[in-house]
Backbone:
């Protein structure tokens, strides 16, 4: 990739796009963690065990929140991120070139 | 009670509706008018083939048996789709840019187009999907059976096998009809996708209807439903941590690797931006599908007798409550789920089987190497159709063998874990450039074997394929190879155990194989293309570029075939499409025609790559580039050959011209020579004739007169003889026929001889000798003396000084003997210095005698002796230098 000279901090828009892409990458990790939390709850006859209805509300709530976040990100992320938008370089972070 | 006949009629009507939908979509796609076919909504709905009859019926059964665990099957794919920015986006981009047709194609392309790998993936996929297809047949059969149980007039249950058979046959027919209608390079099936989208709506609607009926119709609202759930056997929160985490990961992996999911997710993907809609809409679809599962399960457990099959609660709850309409809808939902899965799975598998197994075998039996001709299309389509029928037949056989007894969820999970074996090779291939073929092969073989051993073969139950003793104590009594407790680790859940070991060892083998072997160059190229796909490919555009594309195509075509031809071509195409002007719509037919036209100029591969670039249909793959490079090399070869030929021609022409000039010059020279020589011969002949006539005719000539005239005649005859001798001598020298008499002698000896011969010492000319005297030579003494005599005689004849002095200077310089003859006359003018060594060139006084051949002879002699004779200007007189190379021994002195 040819490195073009870019003015510092002028490309706010594409910078925002890159951070949104970061968020889109991190969202499933957050989702996985949230979905794993029920594993920490006490089980069976143990005192304080949540009922299935509470578990359902939690799981479906997290699920719905994930969907909403994904929808929001999908709306904000531009289909063709990057150069032709404002000439401010790649919106996607450069892939690692060093590994061979 | 719904009669079985009504059920069959509804099924047939529903199938007919699907036919109409699929047919209409195909027609619309053919006319290119189906923008709505390419909406993100249709794409998202087509992804719903993830929800098969396993979801529709099995999820409720799963919930009734294991509580909330069924959710893992839907949470995994939801997370994958929410995280589309990681893997799915890359897969879609690669799928488009590399024209990937299946998951086997993706893996084999990534690892250097290894067909061995493709065959392995295909076989594993067929083996893994067969139980799944059997599962669909089983679910349809069970649902029909549960209707017929309720119908008193129905046939007995023993007829289940025929139900399964007819369902399989009908699905094969539909799939063959719409799955192999056209042989699209992109493997897209608009009709099928549309039918699946409709089925997705039907099954969601059916399940939601049953759920709403259960929650609000039976249980009386949300709050009451929750209260019932908490009071039921499912009420206590009870999950196994290993299964929860393991199954979430497994379903996420299967979502990426299932052949049918790959087909809709990557192959049927029209535009990359559809992913961003699907990223949230598909998880939403999954959420809705699983929302009412627990309420239905709880209600079924409460309402129905304890021995009823929980897998059929979705159907049996409405039936038990007499809601036949809802039951019928629910049946249709289940039917939809089953059929859509079977259709897409068999299309995906048939693509893999025909591309990677049947076609290579067929091509190799055809004597190989033949270029693709028209009839290959028929072979491919036939191979597809047979593969579809074969895949469905396998599913049916599995259903018959396994007895259709196992719980739906168990079969589905075994299928999942089978295809999940592709995951290390797939993800490794997408993100790790060093991943190579050996590693992928090793991982797949090891993982596939473990899967067969730990999960697939035991799934038939003890004593069907694996004897019970093997399950108990391992093969040949080897305890640590027991299918359910490998390496002596027992107590794990069998499924988690199998998935854990197979995927772990698969990944280890994959990584180790990649670390310790070398990839081929093709693999490295493909690896770079795959891993860095976003660096060198644009997001896929749709085909709706329209006029802008046509203009680009026009610009390109003009450059290649010429402006006039390109404009005529485009105008013809536009006219054929019924358009005014020069820009036709870039329909596939037009693009094909243009590609053919361009291929005539630049070669097929280059033309394909160029059009592909402009229409955005495909990125150029390495193979395309290699083909382009081949063509370019051929063209360059041609042009360099032409160039060489024309250079050769130019050289020959130059040589001919030079030869011609030389011949002309020689002819001129010859003419001059002839005229010279006739002149030279004529002069003495004239006087000889004149004086001999006088002698003959004059009467009374006295003796003195006779003697005088005879003397003149004699003198002229001598002169003539000398001239002829000289000419003969010169011609001998020039022709190289001279025999040199090489011998050793001193230089002074020759000089003394020459001086004596010319009488220079006794004449009036003063002779001065300088320099060395005693140089020993190894040469033809007589010839060298001839040269010296000539030079001294010339000095005697032509030196016009009052007191002529001839200086003979001998010296040795740079291994050469230099003998200078310098007189003190006026010398030779600069204009004459060039010609004095030519034949018949005489300067000054013509009466001095001599034919002008002396110096020419000298020059020839010196050339024969390996030396030279030169005129030495700037010596205040005529000066000649004779140069002769000395033998090395002499030079050392």
Residues:
């Amino acid at each position: 990739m040819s490195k073009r000279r870019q003015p510092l901090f002028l490309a706010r828009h594409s910078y925002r796009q890159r951070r949104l892409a970061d968020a889109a990458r991190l969202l499933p990790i957050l989702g996985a963690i949230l979905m794993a939390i029920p594993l920490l709850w006490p089980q069976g006859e143990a005192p304080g065990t949540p009922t299935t209805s509470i578990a359902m509300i939690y799981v479906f709530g997290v699920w719905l929140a994930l969907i909403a976040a994904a929808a929001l990100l999908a709306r904000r992320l531009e289909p063709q991120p990057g150069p032709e938008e404002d000439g401010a370089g790649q919106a996607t972070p450069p892939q690692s070139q060093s590994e061979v | 009670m719904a009669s079985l006949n009504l059920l069959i009629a509804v099924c047939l009507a529903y199938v007919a509706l699907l036919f109409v939908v699929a047919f209409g979509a195909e027609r619309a796609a053919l006319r290119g008018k189906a923008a709505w076919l390419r909406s993100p909504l249709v794409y998202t709905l087509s992804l719903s083939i993830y929800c098969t009859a396993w979801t529709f019926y099995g999820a409720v059964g799963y919930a009734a048996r294991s509580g909330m665990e069924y959710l893992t099957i839907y949470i995994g794919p939801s997370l994958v789709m929410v995280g589309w920015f990681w893997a799915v986006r890359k897969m879609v981009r690669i799928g488009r840019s590399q024209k990937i047709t299946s998951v086997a194609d993706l893996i084999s392309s990534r690892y250097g187009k290894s067909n061995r790998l493709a065959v392995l993936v295909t076989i594993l996929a067929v083996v893994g999907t067969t139980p799944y297809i059997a599962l669909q047949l089983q679910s349809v059969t069970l649902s029909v059976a549960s209707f017929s149980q309720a119908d008193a007039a129905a046939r007995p249950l023993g007829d289940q096998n025929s139900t399964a058979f007819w369902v399989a046959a009908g699905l094969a027919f539909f799939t063959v009809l719409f799955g192999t209608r056209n042989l699209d390079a992109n493997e897209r099936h608009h009709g099928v996708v549309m039918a699946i989208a409709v089925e997705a709506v039907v099954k969601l609607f059916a399940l939601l209807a049953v759920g709403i009926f259960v929650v609000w119709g039976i249980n009386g609202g949300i709050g009451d439903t929750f209260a019932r759930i908490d009071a039921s056997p499912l009420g206590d929160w009870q999950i196994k941590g290993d299964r929860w985490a393991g199954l979430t990961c497994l379903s996420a992996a299967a979502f990426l690797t299932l052949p049918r999911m790959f087909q809709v997710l990557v192959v049927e993907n029209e535009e990359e931006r559809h992913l961003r809609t699907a990223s949230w809409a598909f998880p939403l679809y999954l959420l809705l599908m699983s929302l009412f599962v627990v309420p239905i399960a709880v209600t079924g457990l409460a309402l129905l007798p304890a021995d009823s099959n929980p897998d059929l609660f979705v159907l049996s709850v409405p039936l038990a409550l007499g809601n036949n309409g809802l039951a019928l809808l629910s049946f249709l939902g289940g039917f939809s789920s089953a059929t859509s899965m079977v259709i897409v799975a068999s299309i995906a598998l048939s693509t893999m089987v025909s591309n990677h197994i049947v076609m290579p075998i067929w091509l190799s039996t055809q004597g190989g190497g033949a270029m693709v001709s028209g009839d290959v299309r028929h072979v491919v389509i036939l191979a597809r159709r047979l593969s579809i029928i074969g895949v469905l037949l396998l599913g049916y056989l599995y259903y018959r063998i396994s007895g259709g007894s196992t719980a739906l969820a168990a079969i589905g999970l075994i299928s999942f874990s089978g295809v999940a074996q592709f995951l290390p090779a797939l993800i490794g291939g997408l993100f790790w450039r060093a991943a190579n073929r050996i590693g992928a092969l090793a991982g797949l073989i090891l993982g596939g074997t473990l899967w067969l051993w730990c999960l697939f073969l035991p799934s038939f139950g003890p004593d069907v394929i694996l004897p019970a003793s093997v399950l108990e104590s391992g093969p040949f009594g080897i305890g640590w190879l027991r299918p359910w407790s490998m390496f002596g680790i027992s107590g794990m859940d069998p499924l988690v155990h199998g998935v854990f070991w197979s995927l772990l060892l698969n990944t280890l083998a994959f990584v180790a194989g990649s670390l310790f072997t070398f990839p081929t160059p093709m693999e490295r190229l493909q690896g770079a293309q795959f891993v860095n796909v976003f660096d060198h490919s644009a997001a896929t555009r749709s085909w709706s570029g329209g006029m802008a594309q046509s203009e680009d195509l026009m610009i390109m075509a003009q450059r290649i075939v010429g402006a006039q031809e390109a404009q005529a071509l485009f105008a013809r195409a536009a006219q054929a499409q019924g358009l005014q002007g020069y820009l036709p719509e870039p329909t596939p037919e037009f693009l094909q025609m243009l590609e053919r036209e361009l291929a005539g100029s630049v070669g097929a591969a280059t033309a394909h790559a160029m059009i592909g670039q402009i229409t955005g249909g495909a990125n150029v793959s390495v193979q395309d580039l290699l083909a382009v490079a081949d063509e370019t090399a051929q063209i360059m070869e041609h042009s360099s050959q032409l160039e060489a030929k024309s250079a050769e021609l130019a050289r020959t022409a130059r040589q001919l011209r030079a030869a011609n000039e030389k011949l002309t010059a020689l002819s001129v020279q010859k003419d001059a020579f002839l005229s010279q020589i006739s002149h030279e011969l004529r002069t003495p002949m004239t006087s000889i004739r004149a004086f001999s006539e006088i002698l003959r005719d004059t009467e009374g000539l006295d003796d003195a007169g006779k003697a005088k005239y005879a003397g003149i005649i004699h003198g002229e005859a001598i002169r003539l003889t000398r001239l002829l001798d000289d000419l003969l001598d010169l011609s001998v020298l020039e022709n190289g026929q001279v025999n040199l008499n090489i011998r050793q002698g001193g230089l002074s000896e020759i000089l003394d001889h020459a001086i004596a011969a010319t009488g220079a010492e006794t004449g009036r000319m003063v002779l001065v000798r300088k320099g060395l005297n005693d140089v020993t030579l190894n040469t033809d003494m007589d010839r060298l003396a001839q040269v010296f005599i000539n030079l001294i005689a010339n000095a005697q004849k032509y030196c016009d000084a009052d007191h002529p002095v001839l200086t003979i200077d001998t010296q040795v310089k740079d291994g050469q003997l230099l003998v200078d003859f310098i007189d003190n006359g006026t010398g030779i003018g600069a204009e004459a210095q060039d010609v004095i060594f030519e034949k018949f060139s005489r300067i000054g006084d013509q009466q001095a005698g001599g034919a002008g051949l002396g110096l020419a002879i000298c020059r020839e002699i010196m050339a024969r002796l390996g030396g030279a004779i030169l005129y030495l200007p700037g010596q205040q007189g005529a000066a000649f230098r004779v140069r002769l190379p000395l033998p090395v021994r002499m030079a050392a002195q």
Remarks:
- Residues 81-100 of chain A have pLDDT under 50 and may be disordered.
- Residues 12-36 of chain A form the longest helix (25 residues).
